[in-house]
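Example complex used in Figure S2.
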Amino acid sequence: MTAVAASNEPREAVVGKPRHDSIENARILIADDDPLSRRLLAGILRAENFRNLRLAEGGVSAMEQLKEFRPDLLLLDMQMPDMSGLEVCRKVRADSELADMPILMQTATVDRKKMGELFSGGASDFLSKPINPSELIARVVIHLERWNSLRELRAYRERISRELEAARRMQFELLPPPGALQLFAESAGLRIASYNRSSSELGGDLWGMLPIDAGSLGIFLADFAGHGVNAALNTFRLHALIHEYRSLHDDPAELTSVLNERLVRLLPPGQFATFMYVVIDHADGELRFASAGAPPFLLVPGSGGRALLCEASGVPLGIERGSRYYLQQHAFPKDSLLFLYSDGLSEFVDDSGNRIGDSGLAKALSSCNLGLDPHVVIDCLCAEAGITENVALQDDTTVICIDRRVLTRAESYQDRSPGQPPARSSMVGADQEC
Amino acid sequence: MQITVDRDAGRIAVAGEFTFNDHSQFKQMIIELFEAKGSTITIDLSKLEFIDSAGLGMLLLARDEARKNDRQLILKRPGGQVKRMFCVTKFNTLFTVEE
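Predicted assembly (533 residues):
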């Protein structure tokens, strides 16, 4: 074997351009029934510094060695008595772990039909017999480099998706923990449910609950324009800022103004967030809110009322220095229901190409049965908008539903029982603006 | 979104829906915008049926470009949902909006 290798020309003469060292460590399996051919091929490759070679004297032996040797490239003779190269090729391709491995076929044929069979059988490339050393090395190098690039890309993609997954978990942890939220809501005589789903791994929506005192709490919903990593990183910024201004949590207009001033300095042109902040004063039965370009929220004041669209205008956060935001108020008596959403819900394009819109959501909420569990109300309105569990979202979507329905324990259990269908009576009247 | 450009008049008309998917089209619009003659650039929104927050963000980018290039940007005749979005977000205080 060494004798054959020594007879070869210096490696620079065979391959003109420099190549990556790592491919010389590549594992190459040579399958050929002719011992002379095997020695010749191995000799040419060794002369080019390929050290990790294995030889198989037929198709059966090649199949046996594949699993254990796990080659990076298979050099396969077309005609072998025990199992043809084509058959080996097909078997290799059927194995998901080997499906992408480069296979070079050596063939003496020039028959176009047979060549076609060879490629459709899964060969990556072919080498004409008799073997030309320069051609052999050139093709081996090209296929190993391509294979390396593919593996590097895969590893890169896997790393990125692991990191995105970690970031997604961190972002999820920015949201109020469900257990603590329920306990807090119950102590305030409220029921609360939420829905939050991103259109990609990371989203630009953020919501949160800010405990103020025994009689009131704040709920905010922010939506950064666009989605993906950029918007997601901005949600972390906003989360930190909101908690920095704890003393303003009971002042929606002032908190919104201050957040705007801070974000104007942080965000480049074209990036902004819509922001809705509602203080629920459950002691006095009142809502106080301010909005920075956010969609309206829906309010069913008291039992039996229609859903009102509560809108406040304001420049979204992060655009213009000195923007002013104004306080709005609305009664929030017992049995009222508050429904906040990001535009991912109202602007979702359903199967028929329609968007439900703000007024469509108000109509759907007006027709919901009274006293439904807030989770059921959310499911019901999402379904009306065309958003179901398995549907792909076009934008990040957040929905929060809070009611002041005082329940007996028995009622409470009844409402939460699984399998209760979302009630959808016929549409009752149109929405009104408050 | 469909875009029609009248370079001599410094006018661009957009129609249809202006959303996240119009990013590359929008870049083209910016280029057309500054190739147009005159000190004033008008974007006619009368045929625009829908704009989302990504579309609003792109209008803000156009505003920023206009400022940098010392040109006046006028948004003309927003209607329907676009007008409502302009109201909610007070975009009429950020842009010169003509009816």
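Chain B has one domain: 2-98. The radius of gyration of chain B is 12 Å.
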